[in-house]
Amino acid sequence: MFKDTALSTNGLSCNSCHTGNAAYNASFAQPYPHPVQMAVDGYAMAQIYLDEMVQLCMVRPMAARPLDWQSQTLADLVAYVGEVQKTFTPNPCAARNPCAARNPCTAKNPCAARNPCAARHPCKAR
Known about the structure:
By secondary structure, the chain is mostly helical. It has one domain (5-94): Orthogonal Bundle (Cytochrome Bc1 Complex, Chain D, domain 2). It is 29% helix and 0% strand. α3 (50-59) packs across α4 (72-86).
């Protein structure tokens, strides 16, 4: 499911942004619920649970409808990401992923964007 582009409307999968644990902020190492910048910036959520984070990624970077809260797909994605989280170690250049290649500003500073898939305007001053 993590690599399934059929879950999105724009050809992305979870793996598009998170290949090799890329584009996870350092906070990903913390137990959920915790603050996630994408949730704070886009939805004013002070903290978020893992299932909510999966749903947020479905809606924002993947431009899809949220998954049914009772669905096996959501349960599988949450379980998988929870396993990934157990071995995650923060990387200061976490934005190095296939999505960053689409960002024309990445060449200037490859560590500038935390999640280039979610950026509305990749060249906007940060």
